[in-house]
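Anyone opening a protein record will find just a pair of labelled lines. With that in mind, the following record should read easily:
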Amino acid sequence: MRSHLLVSLLSLLLAIGHEITGEGVDRKPNFVLMMVDDMGIGDVGCYGNDTVRTPNIDRLASEGVKLTQHIAAAPLCTPSRAAFMTGRYAVRSGMGSTGRVQVLLFLGGSGGLPSSETTFAKRLQQQGYTTGLVGKWHLGVSCEQKGDHCHHPNQHGFSYFYGLPFTLFNDCVPGEGSDVLADLQHALRNLSMLLGVGLLTLVCVRVCGLFEVSLWLLVALFFFNVLTTAVWYMPFKLLPTWNCIIMRNQEVIEQPMTVDTLPQRLLGEAQNFIKRNADRPFLLFFSLAHIHTPLFKTPAFAGKSRHGRYGDNIEEVDWLIGKMTETVDSLGLSNNTLMYFTSDHGGHLEDADTQIGQKGGWNSIYKGGKAMGGWEGGIRVPGIFRWPGRLEAGRVVDEPTSLMDLYPTVKHLAQDTHPDRHLDGHNLMPLLEGKVERSEHEFMFHYCGIYLNAVRWHPPGSDSIFKIHFFTPNFSPPGAGGCYDTKVCLCHGEHVTHHNPPLLYDLFHDPSESRPLTPDTEPRYAEILEETAKAVERHQNTLKDLDSHTNTHGTSSQMTWEKILWRPWLQPCCGTFPFCGCKEGATHI
């Protein structure tokens, strides 16, 4: 009896000591960051959509803080995600494009997020956090040889990675067409066929004796035809094998991947990561494969929305977000977990076909979309933070904020006070908690590739948010709302129109950017151009140490043809190259 009493007393004292030390009370917060791929801000109920059902995302907003002017640093996946991860404009890490190709195209390329860059995951890992990425990466894998994995998530601070080192794209599903250099594929295929027909014709002429054909000419044509066919077939026809893969950490576990079951597997991995780490500080980046095309056809959601397959996918996204929220809440973690929901950029307006209809997002009243430089529709995205007990429920923030703000925000909350590089994001907590009313983003810079496309200015003491465009993409056909001929707008040469003086809008009064201001309609016109020019000069002074990051000749640019194009010796593979193939949970095939 006495021994039982002593054990009970000891247990009570240990419990009291546990509370006194603050463990469990003052524990560093957890982070669950959820990013959708290509979602338009107009696709979500709490941002004004009343025809697509998003109750779970709406609930996050009602229980937390909704940002109405949350801005991506770029209107395309690779540069936007590089900026999000590092808190810095993509041009600083060499992840901005100089020409036609604006995102990474092959897992067998050598470009990617440089090892010299620091992600928020790496900072938190150094603070004792367990860090995980489930889903899409699209920031490269290897540099010089297969397996060096210099760009891999594990090398950028993520203790655990499960998902797509590339992205979900049309080539992953038979019958959906190709996203990768389709015109080049077409030209190479036609050249190969033409050479084949020509070679066969000359062989027939020689055999029939119609006239003399040099044997050396036939041999040269044969080898040229083989080379042309290989250049076309190997990298392009086998894209599902090369790019559509799943990795767990640094091992390829499925090649090519089974797309139909991908949403359930990603959700399960994300939930299990939270459950495994519920008793320690963790950061999870749940990077969804939705709603980038090809669109999913999950039976539970197929045909249930009012907007075809695209609407079905939005409602599936909402269900996935609901399951993530449910997991956090069921484990009793909600009061110590900052949950965040966003998209990497705006919806893809041009993506549609006659069978499915619209396959890209709705950007509400905002002009433009994915890959359209600084037009608001391509860079204004949902931004929702929930942290019960810390953030006021139902709060709305109309100030300019950025995806790049996540880096300094999580760093601050993780109590990381170590010196850092030049950051372009700002700690959001004072704004989210209502301790300040003004954003620290007086100026924001909008890039189209490596080219400074537009600048927004939120003058002190004013509600106005002025935005000037130095150039704008040329829509095709003329007068359309996007680049329908090419499916993606480009940022250089004949593909853009430069404006002198720049186009000027006041987003506070004209959020759809439909009424350019003039000296006659805006008294501050000259001042706006002058102050913006000074801000651009100050910003560009911070880029002077980048040297080669901002031109096509330097080795630091990650988006050159040399680094983007496929290299067989860098190709991730399960099995023996080129006979790559395996299914998750099975042996190599």
